[in-house]
Specification:
By secondary structure, the chain is α+β, with helices and mostly antiparallel strands. It has one domain (about 1-75): Winged helix-like DNA-binding domain superfamily/Winged helix DNA-binding domain (Arc Repressor Mutant, subunit A). The protein contains four helices and three strands, in the order αβααββα. A three-stranded antiparallel sheet has the order 1-3-2. The longest helix has 19 residues, at about 1-20.
């Protein structure tokens, strides 16, 4: 179980570091993580902890943007 938690934390860090580069579209975010088996676990963990935010993109809610929340920045040590 401990190895599973460590793997999830490492994947979560990778996921948030990718978002730290700038907001991503929801569809692009899911596509980028589709090959990761624990994708949904990482996504659920990030949203449950409040580490990401979702906001309308230029095309409205059809183009939802995923970005780091202040808690996500703090989790990554970005302030």
């Amino acid at each position: 179980m401990r190895d599973t938690n460590l793997a999830l934390e490492l994947l979560l860090k990778q996921f948030l570091a990718q978002l730290a580069e700038g907001p991503r579209g929801y569809a692009a975010t899911m596509e980028a993580w589709r090959t990761h088996c624990p994708r949904l676990a990482v996504w659920e963990e990030a949203t449950d902890r409040g580490l990401v935010t979702l906001s309308p993109g230029q095309g409205g809610m059809r183009e939802i943007q995923v970005s780091l929340s202040p808690a996500g920045r703090a989790w990554l040590g970005m302030g």
